[in-house]
Amino acid sequence: MERFIEQKQEEMLELIEQLVNIDSGSYMKEGVDLVGSILTKKYEELGFVVEVREEKEYGNHLVIRHKNTIAPKIILLAHMDTVFPEGTVAERPFTIKGNRAYGPGVVDMKSSLVELLYAMQALVHAGSKSIENVEIILNSDEEIGSPSSRSLIEERSIGKEFALVMEPARKDGSLVMARRGGGRYTIVVEGKAAHSGIEPEKGRSAIEELAYKIIQLHDLTDHEKGMSVNVGIIEGGSAVNTVCDSAIAHVDVRISELEQGEYLEERFKEICATSEVQGTNVVLEGEIGRPPMEHNDQTKSLLDIIKDVGEEIGMEISATATGGGGDASFTSATGVATVDGLGPVGGNAHSDKEYMEIDTLPERTLLLAMTIARLSETE
């Protein structure tokens, strides 16, 4: 398989260029669907069946299986959307400088989409039956929290033993063994306006009440446990000489364990159930949108297998935890052994300096293909 993949490197780069040069931000359905249609044709040529999950607001999701697949044990996740607005490609299309490829979404994750496709090609070329043991989900809204694809991923995770997620490797080549989960909350405080000079005693300051809430919320942070609460945006007030009658706080929550989300949810409710400033009213909205990807025994065992495969092909595999969220959290939370970061090495994702290390493309494709084959042998 190694020689086959090496011979395909230029072809892979040509496809990456084609995909990168399509604006496919999460809210750009036409662009995401174009990426999907190109990949659909490629998979169908390999003998895979592509089920299109139609979406009205976002791009369509793709569920891909080999035509002979019956009960696959491996689920592979990749996303077709990027964070970039329409017109970005015209400003800075795909380019190659030395060993690096540049362009919007080149490493997060247009190159991963191509790596995944060519890993399947390599397995088909090798005559491996492991192609019948995989189910691939290509979704269209990962960059905005997977609002329409989360249920699909959770549904398709049922009955699977392993999840391989195609987010890019870290800059040092590390895989991802754990991700923090998180959520967003909004706290709205309603008070009573009054002139701060003439009759301040008649006012009920929403800002004052919100200040109490912010202090209580931040006190819930425990960095040693990987649990953090951050009020990142506050709104309120109409004039400096007016007692504020309405104030809003936007809260970001990060957790390392599922139970932490339940704990914070209860504490938030308790904090917002009463008012420190008499006459103000507090409303809490929000939820934990992504569960954490926990580094449990299942993940550890899967990671050990990938490390063994890496050693076999001359790659030293390391793994790390990251604070960012991703779809790996959904498979992990359903009890499936999950490892992320199987895409090529790169960096500066979500910026105008995003790049992919070209020489890691064939080696990561080989690692992925051989991992799939090894996991299919160990059923």
TrEMBL record:
<dbReference type="InterPro" id="IPR017150">
    <property type="entry name" value="Pept_M20_glutamate_carboxypep"/>
</dbReference>
<dbReference type="GO" id="GO:0046872">
    <property type="term" value="F:metal ion binding"/>
</dbReference>
<dbReference type="Pfam" id="PF07687">
    <property type="entry name" value="M20_dimer"/>
</dbReference>
<dbReference type="InterPro" id="IPR011650">
    <property type="entry name" value="Peptidase_M20_dimer"/>
</dbReference>
<dbReference type="InterPro" id="IPR036264">
    <property type="entry name" value="Bact_exopeptidase_dim_dom"/>
</dbReference>
<dbReference type="Pfam" id="PF01546">
    <property type="entry name" value="Peptidase_M20"/>
</dbReference>
<dbReference type="InterPro" id="IPR002933">
    <property type="entry name" value="Peptidase_M20"/>
</dbReference>
<dbReference type="InterPro" id="IPR050072">
    <property type="entry name" value="Peptidase_M20A"/>
</dbReference>
<keyword id="KW-0479">Metal-binding</keyword>
<dbReference type="GO" id="GO:0004180">
    <property type="term" value="F:carboxypeptidase activity"/>
</dbReference>
<keyword id="KW-0378">Hydrolase</keyword>
<keyword id="KW-0121">Carboxypeptidase</keyword>
<keyword id="KW-0645">Protease</keyword>
<feature type="active site" description="Proton acceptor">
    <location>
        <position position="142"/>
    </location>
</feature>
<feature type="active site">
    <location>
        <position position="81"/>
    </location>
</feature>
<protein>
    <submittedName>
        <fullName>Glutamate carboxypeptidase</fullName>
    </submittedName>
</protein>
<feature type="domain" description="Peptidase M20 dimerisation">
    <location>
        <begin position="178"/>
        <end position="276"/>
    </location>
</feature>
